[in-house]
Amino acid sequence: MSVFTGLENYSIDEKGRLMIPAKFRKELESEEGVVLYMMKMQDKSILLYQKKEWEEVEKELKVLSDFKKEERNLKMFFYSNSEKVELDRQGRIMIPKRFLEDCGITKDVRIVGAGNKLAFWSPQNLEASMTEISQMDNLVTGEGVYIDGTLGGAGHSEGILLRLKERKLLEGSVVYGFDKDEDAINYSVNRLAGYGDKFRAFHRGYEAIVGYPYETAFRINEVGASSVRAKGIVLDLGISSHQINEKQRGFSFLGDALLDMRFSKENPFTARDLVNSYSMDELVEVIKNYGEEPKFRAITKAIIKQRAKKEIRTTAELARMVDSFYGNPREKMKARARVFQAIRIEVNHELDALRCFLDSFEDVLEAKGRLAIISYHSLEDRLVKQRFKHVTTEDWGPKTLMNTEPLRVPTFQAITKKPIYPAAEEIKGNARSRSARLRIIEKI
């Protein structure tokens, strides 16, 4: 079996062909028949499999049931995003146009050795992915149970697993991933399949980590919940690129799709339901408090007026209503982002889930266990900052009491004294990361 290592920089020609570097081509040509299979991934990478490796993937797919929704969807994801390709005499492959467009590859390509396969990235997306993985340096401190509470594209889970493997800690460790989004679960299971039983994914929100469903999850894995504490937990509270880019999910204000915005398809309540059923006062509260939108009342009135004539069904209809209150194109985009954020938070009960987790995470971590949270907007970051301050500082009560001992002693210490912001290089490669703030604490 071929093993691909290293990184090379190449370019796509005008016909969409990519020259495979000689060091990789030698391994490919050593395989009988040189039959290759290409697959587009949700993290905006393209994977190139040799025939034998792809046959192993297909063996796994064939045992999946068409009568179980999650397994059926996983098969559909694989086959709808894969193509058979050929290596020509000059050592080039033709990359499908839809793959290039979906993965943001225009000309320059980073060709990365990924063990038994090759991965193709745009320079920007590779930089963003590597940054996500490197953030896990501060979380991995030893063997144990690690939890990725917001799987998304599995970047953080992979980062943890890589660090564990590099430090020879993988044998005594396991990573559990949680996500409400069925697409994220299916994608993560595929991306991390090479780690076997060292990774398990659960179709639940991260708030389940601190409640009864968390115990159920560990029983499934034949580990007694009463004796299990996590060595590290990471939450990335941002919306995933996949959710934004999949227009039919109804998260993006740049396209036109049915208003949806649900993280989980099991949630019966959509953004369309919200904008067409909430009262004036309820809409004001959502747009004002969750979006911090200065023109909340005017926008709410416009929604009420429009839906009285006709149901508001699409993202484009809602975006146009928001635009009508702003003249500057940049301000229009900012207002759209605020209003869509507010509705998304309400539809998915995002702040309720965060409060639930923050109230109860202490008992889930073992001594010296670490919690890392990446927040993006002021509402969630304020909750994280306040809770972290509460568990990392002494409480002496009012000065008038003149206490000689603190009423409460710290149970955690701050690993990051101030939030860590993304570097300029990461923001350049991933504009959505510009507002990210990483905070880490460790249990005493």
Automatic annotation (TrEMBL):
SUPFAM superfamilies: AbrB/MazE/MraZ-like (SSF89447), Putative methyltransferase TM0872, insert domain (SSF81799), S-adenosyl-L-methionine-dependent methyltransferases (SSF53335). The keyword S-adenosyl-L-methionine applies. The keyword Repeat applies. One of its GO terms (biological process) is rRNA base methylation. InterPro entries: MraZ, MraZ_C, MraZ_dom, MraZ_N, RsmH, SAM-dep_MeTrfase_MraW_recog, SAM-dependent_MTases_sf, SpoVT-AbrB_dom. Residues 7-53, 82-125 form the SpoVT-AbrB domain. GO terms for molecular function: DNA binding; DNA-binding transcription factor activity; rRNA (cytosine-N4-)-methyltransferase activity. Pfam families: Methyltransf_5, MraZ. This is Transcriptional regulator MraZ. It comes from Potamilus streckersoni.
